[in-house]
What we know:
Blueprint: H1 7-30, H2 36-68, H3 72-94, H4 100-132, H5 135-148, H6 164-175
Helix pairs in contact: 1-2, 1-4, 1-5, 1-6, 2-3, 2-4, 3-4
Amino acid sequence: MNGLDGLLGELCVEHRAMEALLRRLDLVHARGEHAVAEGHRLLAEFSTLLDEHLAVEERYFYPLVVRHVPAGTALADAAVHTHTTVRRLLSRAMDERLSAADRTRCTGALLVLLRTHLRGEDEQLFPLVRAAVPAAELRHRGERLAAARPTGTGAPVWGLPPGTGAVAAVRDRLTGHGDAGRQDSP
């Protein structure tokens, strides 16, 4: 398993990959109706990554939130509701029956919602989980996730090189990223 946090390390790697794709979408979105084909291609790519990520969170991460974090059920329910909204916005942004202007508006709303959701998880929910869930359980969940990956190798399908999760986790540990509320020691 890559990363010091097991499951959280893997989710952080996925978040960084999504943020990179969101930056690419920003550039296309800024060009508006003039980049419809490129935007549609990027949204299709993003849809594949997002579907896998949301499924992973709903299967492996939110059950930990419900079981270990105070008010975890409400937090998990709110996140799943956000996932539903994200899926709906993504579907509308890709709907070729809509005008280019409507798809551009949907894409803009999607970008804002996703960034807010990712930041909320990174800065608030992940630290709560790190503080509440034993490190061994996070590692075990991460190992289960790696074993369940469709590649059979346990490597995520994010276009990032193996070990990126470990590098990101070490970097985050050294720079203090995400330490707010952390109660465990390195």
